[in-house]
Design goal:
This protein has 380 residues and is α/β, with parallel strands linked by helices. The chain has two domains: 10-130, 3-Layer(aba) Sandwich (Rossmann fold); 136-377, no CATH class. Helices cover 42% and strands 19% of the residues. It has helices at 10-22, 36-45, 58-63, 67-71, 90-99, 116-121, 136-139, 142-148, 152-155, 160-181, 188-200, 208-215, 219-231, 260-267, 280-294, 339-348, 374-377, and strands spanning 25-29, 50-54, 77-81, 103-108, 126-130, 204-205, 235-238, 254-257, 302-307, 313-320, 323-329, 352-357, 363-366, 369-373. Strands 9-10-11-12-14-13 form a six-stranded mixed sheet. Helix 10 crosses helix 14 (260-267).
């Protein structure tokens, strides 16, 4: 008998409640199959009146061909799944919000930037929640989570083999089906070659001209494809931070594949083989960085990396007001303070610098520099 595992995501249910206290529309955005529909159904369970329209269901899609006939008489919360398939609905949602007590929970597999109509039509009426795949503080099994990633069907698969097979199919379906269903036109083979190449750039600054030459694609196409992958939550472009110092600083973004399981599938790495792979350190860096960023309230904090042309760098700079906290990610049980860390502390005027490791121990190295386990860092 198969054991059903339920992951507690109650903190996101609370975010939905808080969003509706401020606005009539709440948008849950995140990658395909990260759990948005499951979360919405959990939220609907406690409501006296709720209605769900899945725009991947032909019948539901047909019902919303005439939204005024379908939606105007409904009471309570109206949930519309895969909203990016019908961006033309946004102006009518604005009309309903302004002329009724209806509340809308809309789910989308593309970012706010890709669903531009929402920010334009619903400005001042909508709250956004980004729902990532499972994070470490939700599953509490770091090694498995790092290896398989956080997509529910990957993490909860009966075996590592089935998890890997699901991720390979996910990549294939994303390229060949999902993007076109979102109205995004690409050449699947070209996007696949770029995505594979970006996996090898994971944790580095991607050189557009180099990618263009290697893939025989124009710089413009490379940039567009990267923006699409970022807009669909597949990659993160971490912005560089500049300070007013005499040193020449790096001004291009650093690139990460956001889900470690997808990264490992793109690299062709099975299960724990990442531990002997040349990208092991970079994989750990991206995994820890992604979990740490999601542990903060992204509306209150800003996230950057910092580097100089001569090699001094900081993996992650977290800023809130005048507070500046630096993080380095090291796949090591006993990391050392480096010259680069001293330079970052001085040039960036850091309040603290923390070295995040996969170990269990946390301890001080120097007055403002400490080693901390990832699990402890997530509970800040």
């Amino acid at each position: 008998m198969r054991v059903i595992i339920v992951i507690n995501r109650n903190h996101y249910l609370l975010q939905i409640q808080e969003a509706f206290a401020l606005h009539s529309v709440c948008a849950i955005l995140g990658p395909r199959q990260c759990g948005k529909t499951t979360l919405a159904k959990l939220y609907m369970q406690d409501l006296t009146s709720a209605h769900l329209f899945d725009l991947e269901n032909p019948q539901d899609l047909a019902m919303l061909e005439s939204p005024s006939l379908t939606l105007s008489s409904l009471e309570g919360v109206i949930v519309i799944d895969e909203i990016q398939r019908r961006p033309d609905l946004f102006p009518y949602l604005r009309f309903l919000v302004d002329n009724s007590d209806k509340k809308f929970l809309i789910l989308g597999s593309a970012s706010q930037d890709l669903i531009q109509q929402s920010s334009e039509s619903l400005a001042g009426r909508i709250s956004y929640i980004e729902l990532p795949p499972f994070q470490l503080n939700e599953v509490n099994d770091m090694y498995k989570h790092w290896m398989l990633g956080g997509f529910p069907r990957s993490f909860l698969a009966p075996s590592p083999f089935q998890s890997e097979k699901w991720r390979i199919n996910y990549i294939k379906n994303f390229l060949e089906r999902d993007l076109s269903m979102m109205g995004i036109q690409i050449v699947p083979g070209n996007m696949r070659r770029l995505w594979n190449m970006l996996a090898h750039y994971h944790g580095q600054i991607a050189n557009i001209s180099e990618l263009s030459r290697s893939l025989d694609m124009t710089d413009k196409t490379i940039k567009r494809y990267i923006d699409i992958l970022e807009g669909c939550f597949m990659i993160r472009q971490l912005k560089p931070w500049f300070v007013n110092i005499s040193k020449r600083q790096v001004k291009r973004p650093k690139l990460y594949i956001r889900d470690s399981g997808i990264l490992h599938a793109l690299l062709g790495v099975s299960n724990n083989n990442i531990l002997t792979h040349p990208k092991c350190g970079a994989s750990w860096e991206g995994y820890a960085l992604e979990n740490l960023i999601h542990s903060y309230d992204n509306d209150l904090y800003e996230f950057y990396f910092w580097a100089t042309e001569k090699g001094a760098e900081l993996d992650l700079l977290v800023i809130k007001g005048s507070q500046r906290h630096g993080f380095e990610f090291k796949y090591s049980e006993a990391p050392k303070v480096t010259k680069s860390m001293y330079i970052a502390m001085e040039d960036l005027k850091l309040d603290s610098l923390t070295i995040i490791t996969p170990g269990e121990r946390s301890y001080a190295l120097e007055k403002e520099i400490k080693v901390q386990s990832l699990k402890e860092a997530l509970s800040h």
